[in-house]
Structure formats: C-alpha cells, structure tokens
Description:
The chain is of the alpha+beta class and about 90 residues long. The chain contains three helices and five strands. The strands form two sheets. It has a three-stranded antiparallel sheet. A two-stranded antiparallel ribbon has the order 3-4.
Amino acid sequence: MAKMTKSQLLSHLAEKSGLSKKEVISFMDLITETAYSEVKNNGEFTFPGIGKLVKKDRKARVGRNPATGETIQIPAKVVVKFRVAKAAKESIL
C-alpha cells in the first residue's frame, strides 16, 4: 500500500470533518506555525496523542572522518527531535 500524500491527507481530513479543503489547509498551516513558534520560544510543542517536538542543545564532540579515519572536531549545535507518544507507539505496534 502506498503512503498517503499531503494532498490525499488534506482531502481525507476535509471529507471526514465536513470542512472545505481550504479550511483544512489553513488549519494545518496554523498548527504548523504554532508548533514552530512554540519550539523556538519554549523548547517544545506537544501534539496530543502523537508526540512532542523538542529543541535540544548538542555538545561539541570529537568524531572521525569515515573516508580517512582522521579525528575531527564536531561543533556544538541546536537540533530538533521528535519523541513519539506512548499512546501512539502502543496503538501502532
């Protein structure tokens, strides 16, 4: 079975909710905008029943160049991770 495309998802949500496709698109855009803003300002955003977007600081570390085996310094950086909710794991697996 092929995975659902963005267009198929929006059509499915519009059909199930009784909203127009334009309303569903603007709602999804609002959720996305809110998630980005919350993670940027507060460090995390929870999608109830699905999971949580979390901003983490990654420390500087020493690594290896896989081609040459040479030791290199990897700088510190900020990354965004997604933690799947326990309820989502249990219902999927």
